[in-house]
Each structure stands twice: as C-alpha cells, then as structure tokens.
Amino acid sequence: MTNRLAEAKSLYLRKHAENPIDWWSWCDEALTTAREQDQPIFLSIGYSSCHWCTVMEGEAFSDLAIAEYMNANFLPIKVDREERPDLDSIYMQTLQMMSGQGGWPLNVFLSPDDLVPFYAGTYFPVDPRYGRPGFLQVLQALRRYYDTEKEELRQRKAVVVEALLTSAVLQNSNTQETEDQELLLNGWETSTGIIIPKQVGNSFPMIPYAEFAWRGTRFNYESQYDRQQVCTQRGLDLALGGIYDHVGGGFHRYTVDPTWTVPHFEKMLYDNGQIVEYLGNLWSAGIQQPAFERAVAGTVKWLQREMTAPSGYFYAAQDADSFTHPTAVEPEEGAFYVWTYSQLEQLLTSAELKELQQNFTVTANGNFEGQNVLQRLHQGELSQTLEISLSKLFAARYGSTPETLTIFPPAADNQEAKTTEWPGRIPAVTDTKMIVAWNSLMISGLARAAVVFGQPSYWELAAKAANFILDNQFVDGRFYRLNYQGEASVLAQSEDYAFFIKSLLDLHQASLQNDWLEKAVALQEEFNEFLWSVELGGYFNTASDNSQDLIVRERSYIDNATPSANGIAIANLVRLSLLTDNLHYLDLAEQGLRAFRGVMSNSPQACPSLFTALDWYRNSTLIRSNREQLTSLIPKYLPTTVLAMVSELPAGSFGLVCQGLKCLPAAASVEELLLQVQRSQNRM
Known about the structure:
The chain is 48% helix and 10% strand. It is α+β, with helices and mostly antiparallel strands and 684 residues long. Helix 8 (180-194) crosses helix 9 (207-215), helix 9 (207-215) packs parallel to helix 24 (608-619) and helix 10 packs across helix 11.
C-alpha cells in the first residue's frame, strides 16, 4: 500500500511512498487541509543522497505506532530540499536558532494558520538513544504543547518571526567606500584561515572560500599565512585524497576525518563542478601539479559515463550507500567504492599490490571498517603500472575496462539497483533529475577546464548541457529550475538564475561566441524583473509571483556547499557592465554590495562570494582585441578581467585595456598589455 508520494517526480519523495505515514507533498491543498482541521504540520525536509534521511525513512517513518499517531494528530508533509531550497533555507535557519546547529533530515513542526515553526530537530530515533528522545515521545509532547499552551506557543512563534524578519532585512553598515581595501584584505585573511589544514573534524571542499582566497594571492599584502601554499594544498588534498575516487573518477561529498582519507561517499554534481573550476584556475596560474590534470580528466570521464543524460544535461547526485548483493535488505555505505585486502590480492599481482601499497593507503586491516579507501601518498604522476592496477580495479567494479566502457546507465532507485544484472558491483542509486543551478556549476567548470587543459571535448559537454537548459527550461516565457525526464518543473530560484548566467558568461569568455552573451543578457532581464529587491537591494531567493507560501522572503548571501546566489549575481552584473557598456548593471552591483556590506564587515567568514563580487567591482578590467590575440589570453588566470572582440584596433597595437570607465593607452605588445592588466587587477 503506497501513499501520495508514489506519484511524486522526486526520487527522495518516492523513497517514502511505502511508509505507513500519510505523507503529503508541499501544496495548497495540504496547507488548507491542515488549517481546516487545526492540525499542526510536521514538515520533514531532506534529499535523496542524505544518509541519515535514509536511516530515518527506514526506522521512524516505517514504524506503525509512530505512523498511527502521526496520521491522527499531525498533517505530515515531505519536501525535497533540492526542489525547494527556499523552504529549506527558512526552516533550517529556524533549527539553527533553536538548537545552535543544523543538518538533514530537517524536521520542523509548524502552526497550520501561519506556517510559523514552534519546534525543530534533525534525526529522531524510534526509541531513545544517542542522547535523543524517541520520536513517538516527541510527537506526543508536541501535540500536547500545541493543544494546551496556546499563549506560550504564540509568544514562541513571535520570537521566531521577529528573528527571521530581522535576518531577512539586514542592517546596512555605514562603512564608507574608502574602506573597500581594508574590507577585502580582511576577507582574504578570513577565507585563507578557513581553508588551512586542521587537526580535527570533517573535511569539506569549501570551494567558495578557496576560490576567493586564491584570488587574493595576486596581491603582495602582509599576511599571517603562506597564501599560495594554503590554496595549493587545498587543491592537493582534493586531488590526492580519498575524497577523490581514484578508480572511477569524481569527487565525494566530504571526508569524515581531517586527513582527507575516508569520505562520506555520495557524489554531488555541485561539488564536482566547483572543484573542476578551482583546479583549472590553479593550473592556469602556474600551479601545474599532475594530480590536478588527472583528477579533472577522471572527473569528466565519470561525468560522461555515469552522470550525463542522453539529451545532454547532468544528473544531480549519486548515493553514498549501495547493495552488496541483490538479496541484501539494506544498502551499505561505500560498498561500491572500497576494497578488502583479499580482493586486492586476488585482482593484482604481488608486484602490482606492492607498488599500490607504496603509493596509496592500502593495508591488510584497511582504513574504513576493515576495507580500504584509496588515498594517494605522494605527488607527481602515477606510473604506468599503477594506472594498469587501477584499471583492473575499475574492471572489477564496473565489469568492463575504462577504455571500452563509455556509458554506465544509472540505477534510478533501489529496486532497479537490485534487479538489474550488473556486470560488476551493484552501483549506488543515481538521482537523475536535472537542477539548473547545479548543472550551471558543472558547465562553468567544464568551460574553464576546456581552455586551460586544451580539451575541446570538455567544451562540447558544457555547451550541450547549456543548450538543453536553453531549449527546455523556459515555459510560457519563464525560467524553470528542475527537469524530470524532459518535463520542466518548479519556477527558477535566485541560484538558478545567478549560476546559469555565470555559466553563459563563462562559455562566452571561453569561446568569444556572442550568442552566449546575448542569452545571458536576456535572462538577466527576467532575473531583475522578478527577483530584484528595489527596497533592500540584492536578489530575493524566489520570484515576486511565487512567494505566497513563504513566511519571509530571504536573500541568499551566505556560502554553504555552493556559492551564495547574491555573491555570484553581483559579480555577473559587473561582468555584464563591462561586456555591454550598460552602466545600469554597475548601478545594481553597487546597490547589491551596499545591501550586504554590514554582513561583509561583521561576518566575513559567512560570505566569500560577496567578497569575490567586491573584488570584481573594485578591480574590473576589460581587454578589447581581435580574436587571434584574445585566444592566446583565454587560458591565462585573469580573475577580474573580461575579454571583448573588436574588429579594428589602433595601428600597431595589440589591444586596449580598460579600467572601469577609462581606457589605457593602446598596448603595442602582449607583454605590455599583460603588464597593464596586472596593474589594473591589483588596484584595490
């Protein structure tokens, strides 16, 4: 017997279709029903590759006693955070206010009349354990509280609403423009400090911080850090660490240790796009570690083989867990990726195994539950013998060699994973939905890597995905966020606009083809019309005609696993102003930076992408030249520079360099032009 979620398009929602809980999706009918019946709403938010979301689905949400009480006393709603990041952001902020921490699954209890939360938590076990109460006891206590403590409930909600509104409005700082230099220097020091190697805790890519910190290495200011070394080390940790899949390519979400060894095994598209772009930027700036090129190449092969739909877009994610056998009841974390020592002995010759142990973290006892996660021990190129050994492991995992396996079809759900006759191991489930924002991050990474590493195939992959979005994500003149098997769904949010406009500009800069720029300009107009805040500055997360079910309209300015929408959007505005000579874009960029200036001053650790936008605003540089000359400049690391083709140049000149609203004397050689660009990018 299935519930309403059996008809959902979202893989995450469908995973709950057989729960005894009478789940609703977030919709007007559900909200109206809760109000009419005066049932508090139990809102549960997660995503398909979330490990603890999967655990709670199999435990508390499958428990008959819990379901019986839930169905009688609450109106339960399931939300995929990848479908509705606006809802997730609002209610995650509430959880953080109430508990001091966040995470998924995000479980929130709302009053039906105003959708204001009065309690929130993450994972709840069936019975009390891990220092957490049993879920049924939580439900009973909260229903009793809702029925009997109306005045305290009203006061509690008033505090929550006030905090959310205060956070959404922000207080503008009186900081003057003359303090931009100090603001940037403080931002660079803060971001560099965040990515220095640490001794405890999990290790996340943190690419928005690394990217901004790397931009700062072009300035010779006094610092407590060896900034180039710190940023290079972040690239090495990613390319050498267990977070990278050295057999099949692609980066896992994070590692559970400070040594970058054992990952939490899900692979998210957004991480891979950002990391590819970051490694490309390191390479283009002269940090040409062989591991960077190998990791990028392996990631693109993984993307082509496992994450690209026939129509050209990229899938969203792959789960951390997979089945070891078709009869297994539950999947196991990392099963697709790890190796027992005995498996390695069977697959490799003794000489191959010895060399593998000399270069990777391989022991008889393993480093993850008795099994081995491969982490490189040394920099440099891998020997041909090692590459052969890794190819043997690839064949054992996939049932075919890397050279012959071009497409590895996804397992769309657990049932398909268990019933398909796989030639190798049973793979993790792939969430095959298309998310514009995440595709855009991958397009940007591929566009940059294509020109940096001289790989036209990367460019073709990026262009095909971008064209899919352009051809399929506009319905009745509006931009849409998701695509399920050819059907657009959910109006685009600020990150979709901002990231896709950036990817279009990146494609333009990599190719100098003006149609990409024209598409970016057109989409920017829609972005401005429906999401720009005239009163406050910056962009709201959701469109003006699609915010009725939100208790507050937020503006994303905090960087998490992905950059903030406003940070990317403001940088886009500066780039557009240079490329189109339209100063209205520059005015909007200035208003946006002013809106978030207080946050940048008081919480620089929260918003590296806004600092990147300020760097663009302060050091924006335009190079005008012909295609031949510009083509030689495209692969170089010029972080606040855009390139524009002109048909005619002054006689004997190589090109023109413009700083904001003024142009410098025409450069007679590439050396003179690059010197002008260097000075222009370092103005502050």
